[in-house]
Amino acid sequence: VEEQKYVTKLMSSGYPNELCQGAQILAGIADNIRNGRAVAVAATPATTAPNRAAAETARATAALQSGYSNAGLSSRSRDGDMPGVTNFQREMEQQKREKLRRPLPARMPLCVSLSTGEFEKMALQYRQQSGMVDPSMSGEGNAKKPGWKSFLKGMLGTGGTASMTFVDDEWDGSVADAFARAQIGRTGKDNRQTVKGRFGPQNPAEKASVQRIIAMGLHEDDKRDSLTRPIRFQRVLIGSVGGQAGKVGIKKGDVVTHINGEEFVGDAAALHALLVEAYEQQGRDGVIMIVVNAEDCTAEALRLRARVH
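Above: the chain sequence. Below: its structure as tokens.
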């Protein structure tokens, strides 16, 4: 319970770096649960079976990751237990109502640890583009050796694409941005990825709740504005995702905010080079920690949302 309170405090602090810290703690809890090391099991009464305790801890962790700091593990209706209605069903209904009353940001913070082998394709493509792969692999005369394209195709696999691509974007400084996701498409002769627009909640009730949350921030005094906080207007989005990164929850449109616990400041090319360098230095067996969506607008949106009663 104390750990949940601490994480909730971090997640609703209004500061990106504390949001990053909360995401890292949640990732550690989730890892413990996956490996059967959930500390909450030891604090569970003896009347609760260990597997049920682990399941309840998992649900509590998932609830925290979704922003529900007051999610109950065994909620009851005010009218008592209704025949045929399980606790899980009640919780789902409660969460639906909570989502309309206190909507979550569209991009919630997430911390993942990825093998540097995930970036092998990026490194090979970088070598190709920078000329580090010798294109003169075909011999003279009729007997030709396999060309460099065939070599790369074999190294990269059938698809030949990296597990993640990145897109440069610009934040407009608004809290409203936290409740919208970027629509990313391709344009131009070079078929490059770009942000084509943004889309937010469609439900009228959810829209109204978002407006109320934003209005709370507009009516506050200037005390928070006097605090020294780094404001990042330029940012990098996930343009596409696959492989291990996609399996652990990174989504298209997520904002890359921290690498190995440090705030990332740079453009898409700089992030690409950073991940390639990690692979070049550590090989396939290294680990790199990436945090997405621990940004100013999401931090402020969660802070204001926590004040809605």
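The chain is about 40% helix and 15% strand.
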